Fold this protein.
Amino acid sequence: MLAEGWEALSPRYRRMPGAGDLREAAVRQLEDFARSHDLRAQPFMVEPYFQVEAGPGVTLMGRLDRIDEEPGGSLHVIDYKTSAEPQEVDAGQLRLYAIMVEAKLGRSVSRASFWYLGDGQVWTLELSEEDKRQACAELLAAAKAMTNVAVFPPTMGRHCAHCPYLYACEFREEIQRRRGEEGW
C-alpha cells in the first residue's frame, strides 16, 4: 500500500530534495510497527471523519486515525504520530477526539492514545467522564473568548511572501521591505 500511495504522489513531489529519505523513513516505521503490534487486530473504525456540534455555534470536525473497541464495549481512540514521543505530551487533541466520537457514535470512550511511530512508544490516557466534561467546558470557554476578540494584530514573517491576499494587506509595504532585507 505504501508503494502504491507513493507512486500516486505527484512526480514533482517524489523528486523533491529529501523525498527519498522520507520514503525510507516511512518504510522503517512500517517495519517497526509490524514487529511490535498485532497486525491481525481489527480496528472498529479507520480514518472516520466526524463533524459534531460541541455547543451552540461551536463545531468540532476532524478525521481520526483509528478507533478500537475495548473488551467491555467502550472505545479507544488512537492517533498515530510520525515523530518520536516528546518530553511533554499535550493530550488536548485526544480529549477533543473523545468528545467527537461520543457525540457522533453515542458510545463511551474510555481510553485515548498517541502511537509514536518515530520511536515505537505508546502514550495512553485513561478518560473519565469528568475529564471529558472538563475538556468540553474548556473548549466552549476558548471558543467564547475567541468570539470576543476584535483586534487581530498581524504576525509577519516568511509566510507573508506568498500570501494570495498580499495585494490587499495594509502591511504590504512593510512586508516587501522585510522580504528584501531578510531575503524571503
